[in-house]
Amino acid sequence: MAGNIAAGPLSGIRPALPLLAPAYLWLTLAIFLPLSAMAFFSFMTDLPLSGKDWSFTIRNYAAFFSSGLYVTLLWSSLRLGLEVTLWCALIGFPAAYVLAKVLKGRSREAIFLLVILPFWSNGLVRIFSWAMVLREGGILDVVLNAILPFKISVDLMYSYPAVIIGLVHSYVPYMVLTCYLTLQAIDDSLIEAARSLGASRLQVLRRLIIPLAMPGLIAGAVLIFVPVVGSFMEPRILGGRTGTFYGTVIEDQFVAVFNWPLGAALSFILLAVVLVILAAASPVLRRAT
Q: What are phi and psi of 217, to 5 degrees?
């Protein structure tokens, strides 16, 4: 009897193994092996590829706590992730609602195409396009001076707002897509019933739509917050000197300084902090969903 019970789940998985094996093999090769190598490097004094003598040490992790600079940059990156996630929610949720509940037919398809359009272009192309728009004498400057009766100078390049704009543009489609899926699953008859019972539009939004769409909001927030905290391209190009964050420091260790052990240690500290934040927030997120 027990053998039959134990064999039941295995007998159900066994036919699917040929389909699951390629995906899990690829995940093992593309994710776990590089992470294992980086974990190994993070405890080394130097790269073995350089031909220098090396040994195991925890000095790379101790460097994070001994220098207040890394802690400050990590806090700045976490704040950046929260701000970008908030802006993506404020912009993406209304857009997703319009797509799911207002637009129909070809107009929905056209707007949906515009939403996913950033995925079709290279990240560097998007960033340098914003550089052409935000710099002094750029597209935004020219358009505003052509419309307004007085002369103004718009130069947002190499500033914190420019970094926010570039990151929001890159990641807001994730919020739109996740919210769209949950909003589309809401039965229109529920909204009509609430309206027929005297609920205002604001009450329907606050007590019906947002709670039912919360899984999409949370999924989008996680998809945005995690990569933004470690982002380096947008801060580097659009932020200039003001775009120094934790992710740009990690990139410098790998590319400029060639200190891979310290860069790997800083990367794993960032991974640990993000996992701790998600674990601490999981009870609240679980109640929300």
A: -65, -45
Structural domain including 170 reads: 67-288
Tell me if 216 is assigned to some domain: yes
The secondary structure of the chain in percent helix, strand, coil, rounded to multiples of 5, reads 80, 0, 15
In-domain check, residue 58: no
What angle do helix axes 210-229 and 68-97 make, rounded to 10 degrees? 140
The answer to whether residue 61 sits within a structural domain is no
Q: For residues 183 and 177, what is the distance between their CA atoms, to the nearest angstrom?
A: 10
Rounded Cα distance, 111 and 101, in Å:
13
| Cα–Cα dist 48/27, whole Å | 26
> Tens of pLDDT along 38-53?
898 899 888 776 667 7
| pLDDT, mean over the chain | 86
What angle, 0 to 180 degrees and rounded to 10, lies between the N-to-C axes of helices 246-255 and 260-288? 150
- Please state, in angstroms and rounded to a whole number, the distance separating the CA atoms of residues 194 and 208: 8
Tell me the β-bridge partners of 56: 44
192-248 pLDDT tens trace: 888 888 888 888 888 899 989 998 999 999 999 999 999 999 999 999 888 889 999
269 located within any domain: yes
Could you tell me if 58 and 266 are in contact, meaning their C-beta atoms sit under 8 angstroms apart? no
User: Which two structure tokens, joined as six digits, stand for 7?
Assistant: 């064999």
Which is nearest to 81 in space by CA: 273, 282, 279, 287?
273
CATH code of the domain containing 163: 1.10.3720.10
Q: Which residues contact 112 (CB under 8 A, 6 or more apart)?
A: 99
262: confidence class by pLDDT, cuts 50, 70, 90:
very high
**Total domains, the chain:** 1
